[in-house]
Amino acid sequence: MTPPTLRAAAPADVGALFALMRELAEFEKLTHLFVATEDGVRDALFGPRAPAEALVAEVHGRIVGYALYFHNYSTFLGRRGLYLEDLYVQPAQRGGGLGTAMLRRLAALAVERQCGRFEWTVLDWNQPAIDFYEKMGATVLPDWRVVRVTDDALARLAGAGPAPQTTAGGIER
Protein backbone atom coordinates (compact mmCIF):
# COMPACT_ATOMS: atom_id res chain seq x y z
CA MET A 1 0.00 0.00 0.00
CA THR A 2 1.47 3.34 -1.07
CA PRO A 3 1.19 6.02 1.64
CA PRO A 4 -0.30 9.41 0.73
CA THR A 5 2.15 12.06 -0.44
CA LEU A 6 2.16 15.78 0.31
CA ARG A 7 4.21 18.03 -1.93
CA ALA A 8 4.37 21.54 -3.31
CA ALA A 9 2.14 22.00 -6.32
CA ALA A 10 3.83 22.04 -9.71
CA PRO A 11 2.66 23.68 -12.97
CA ALA A 12 1.55 20.27 -14.29
CA ASP A 13 -0.94 20.08 -11.38
CA VAL A 14 -3.02 23.09 -12.41
CA GLY A 15 -5.74 21.07 -14.16
CA ALA A 16 -6.24 18.81 -11.15
CA LEU A 17 -6.13 21.78 -8.75
CA PHE A 18 -8.71 23.64 -10.81
CA ALA A 19 -11.02 20.60 -10.77
CA LEU A 20 -10.70 20.34 -6.97
CA MET A 21 -11.40 24.06 -6.59
CA ARG A 22 -14.61 23.53 -8.55
CA GLU A 23 -15.50 20.60 -6.25
CA LEU A 24 -14.95 22.86 -3.24
CA ALA A 25 -17.26 25.50 -4.72
CA GLU A 26 -19.91 22.80 -5.22
CA PHE A 27 -19.48 21.54 -1.64
CA GLU A 28 -19.83 25.07 -0.28
CA LYS A 29 -22.85 25.72 -2.55
CA LEU A 30 -21.02 28.67 -4.09
CA THR A 31 -20.66 27.66 -7.75
CA HIS A 32 -22.49 30.85 -8.74
CA LEU A 33 -19.41 32.73 -7.47
CA PHE A 34 -16.85 30.43 -9.09
CA VAL A 35 -15.43 32.31 -12.06
CA ALA A 36 -11.78 31.22 -11.79
CA THR A 37 -10.00 29.86 -14.84
CA GLU A 38 -7.15 27.40 -15.20
CA ASP A 39 -4.98 30.16 -16.68
CA GLY A 40 -5.75 32.39 -13.70
CA VAL A 41 -4.83 29.62 -11.27
CA ARG A 42 -1.62 28.93 -13.21
CA ASP A 43 -0.67 32.61 -13.07
CA ALA A 44 -1.55 32.92 -9.37
CA LEU A 45 0.61 29.93 -8.44
CA PHE A 46 3.41 30.00 -11.01
CA GLY A 47 3.37 33.40 -12.74
CA PRO A 48 6.17 35.95 -12.46
CA ARG A 49 4.63 37.61 -9.37
CA ALA A 50 2.73 34.60 -8.02
CA PRO A 51 0.78 35.72 -4.94
CA ALA A 52 -0.14 32.22 -3.73
CA GLU A 53 1.31 28.77 -3.15
CA ALA A 54 -0.29 25.36 -2.87
CA LEU A 55 0.29 21.92 -1.43
CA VAL A 56 -1.22 18.88 -3.06
CA ALA A 57 -2.13 15.57 -1.46
CA GLU A 58 -1.73 12.49 -3.64
CA VAL A 59 -3.00 8.97 -3.17
CA HIS A 60 -1.73 6.38 -5.67
CA GLY A 61 -0.36 9.22 -7.79
CA ARG A 62 -3.73 10.98 -8.04
CA ILE A 63 -4.26 14.44 -6.53
CA VAL A 64 -7.14 14.14 -4.04
CA GLY A 65 -6.70 17.30 -1.97
CA TYR A 66 -5.00 20.64 -1.81
CA ALA A 67 -4.22 23.60 0.41
CA LEU A 68 -3.86 27.04 -1.18
CA TYR A 69 -2.17 29.69 0.95
CA PHE A 70 -0.41 33.05 0.89
CA HIS A 71 1.20 35.58 3.21
CA ASN A 72 -0.61 38.45 4.87
CA TYR A 73 0.68 40.94 7.43
CA SER A 74 -0.34 41.81 10.98
CA THR A 75 0.34 45.38 12.06
CA PHE A 76 -0.36 44.37 15.66
CA LEU A 77 2.28 41.64 15.59
CA GLY A 78 4.59 43.48 13.22
CA ARG A 79 5.08 40.21 11.34
CA ARG A 80 3.70 38.44 8.36
CA GLY A 81 1.24 35.61 8.74
CA LEU A 82 0.27 32.59 6.70
CA TYR A 83 -3.31 32.65 5.43
CA LEU A 84 -4.99 29.44 4.28
CA GLU A 85 -7.46 30.27 1.52
CA ASP A 86 -8.60 26.72 0.76
CA LEU A 87 -8.21 23.32 2.39
CA TYR A 88 -10.01 20.59 0.49
CA VAL A 89 -9.88 16.81 0.52
CA GLN A 90 -12.22 14.80 -1.67
CA PRO A 91 -15.00 13.16 0.38
CA ALA A 92 -13.84 9.59 -0.32
CA GLN A 93 -10.40 10.45 1.12
CA ARG A 94 -11.58 12.22 4.28
CA GLY A 95 -10.83 10.69 7.66
CA GLY A 96 -7.46 9.35 6.55
CA GLY A 97 -5.36 12.17 7.94
CA LEU A 98 -4.72 14.21 4.79
CA GLY A 99 -6.34 17.38 6.15
CA THR A 100 -4.42 17.05 9.40
CA ALA A 101 -1.18 16.44 7.51
CA MET A 102 -1.68 19.53 5.34
CA LEU A 103 -2.49 21.73 8.35
CA ARG A 104 0.58 20.44 10.17
CA ARG A 105 2.78 21.03 7.12
CA LEU A 106 1.49 24.59 6.79
CA ALA A 107 1.92 25.24 10.51
CA ALA A 108 5.53 24.08 10.21
CA LEU A 109 5.99 26.34 7.20
CA ALA A 110 4.58 29.29 9.19
CA VAL A 111 7.05 28.58 12.00
CA GLU A 112 9.93 28.16 9.53
CA ARG A 113 9.06 31.48 7.86
CA GLN A 114 8.74 33.18 11.28
CA CYS A 115 5.07 34.03 10.79
CA GLY A 116 3.20 35.53 13.72
CA ARG A 117 0.05 33.59 12.97
CA PHE A 118 -1.58 30.98 10.77
CA GLU A 119 -5.24 31.64 10.07
CA TRP A 120 -8.19 30.92 7.82
CA THR A 121 -11.97 31.23 7.71
CA VAL A 122 -14.66 28.58 7.94
CA LEU A 123 -18.33 28.76 6.98
CA ASP A 124 -20.53 28.94 10.08
CA TRP A 125 -22.70 26.02 8.90
CA ASN A 126 -19.72 23.67 8.42
CA GLN A 127 -19.73 22.20 11.92
CA PRO A 128 -17.61 19.15 10.98
CA ALA A 129 -14.84 21.50 9.80
CA ILE A 130 -15.19 23.71 12.87
CA ASP A 131 -14.93 20.66 15.13
CA PHE A 132 -11.91 19.41 13.16
CA TYR A 133 -10.11 22.77 13.41
CA GLU A 134 -10.81 23.11 17.12
CA LYS A 135 -9.55 19.56 17.69
CA MET A 136 -6.33 20.64 15.95
CA GLY A 137 -5.94 23.50 18.44
CA ALA A 138 -7.40 26.35 16.38
CA THR A 139 -9.69 28.98 17.86
CA VAL A 140 -12.77 30.05 15.91
CA LEU A 141 -12.98 33.78 16.63
CA PRO A 142 -16.58 34.67 17.59
CA ASP A 143 -16.26 38.44 17.33
CA TRP A 144 -14.85 38.80 13.82
CA ARG A 145 -16.77 38.96 10.54
CA VAL A 146 -15.41 38.81 7.01
CA VAL A 147 -15.90 42.08 5.15
CA ARG A 148 -15.91 41.87 1.36
CA VAL A 149 -16.34 44.31 -1.50
CA THR A 150 -16.70 42.93 -5.06
CA ASP A 151 -17.90 43.78 -8.54
CA ASP A 152 -19.90 47.04 -8.85
CA ALA A 153 -19.46 47.87 -5.17
CA LEU A 154 -15.69 47.59 -5.59
CA ALA A 155 -15.79 49.88 -8.61
CA ARG A 156 -17.88 52.42 -6.67
CA LEU A 157 -15.55 52.28 -3.69
CA ALA A 158 -12.61 52.82 -6.02
CA GLY A 159 -14.32 55.94 -7.36
CA ALA A 160 -15.30 54.49 -10.73
CA GLY A 161 -19.03 54.88 -10.17
CA PRO A 162 -21.59 56.78 -8.14
CA ALA A 163 -20.97 56.78 -4.41
CA PRO A 164 -23.40 54.69 -2.35
CA GLN A 165 -26.17 56.53 -0.54
CA THR A 166 -26.03 56.23 3.23
CA THR A 167 -28.39 57.00 6.07
CA ALA A 168 -27.40 58.53 9.38
CA GLY A 169 -26.54 55.01 10.60
CA GLY A 170 -24.18 54.47 7.66
CA ILE A 171 -26.28 51.79 5.98
CA GLU A 172 -26.31 51.75 2.18
CA ARG A 173 -29.73 52.35 0.64
Summed up:
With 173 residues, this protein is α+β, with helices and mostly antiparallel strands. The chain has helices at 14-27, 38-46, 98-112, 127-135, 151-157, and strands at 5-8, 53-59, 62-74, 79-89, 118-120. It is globular, with a radius of gyration of 18 Å.
Runs in which pLDDT lies below 50 for 5 or more consecutive residues are none
Query: What is the CA-atom radius of gyration, in angstroms?
Result: 18 Å
- The main sheet orders its strands as 1-2-3-4-5
Distance between the termini: 60 Å
Q: Strand percentage, roughly?
A: 15-25%
The tally of structural domains comes to: 1
CATH fold type? Aminopeptidase
Order of helices and strands: EHHEEEHEHH
CATH architecture: 3-Layer(aba) Sandwich
Category by helix and strand content: alpha+beta
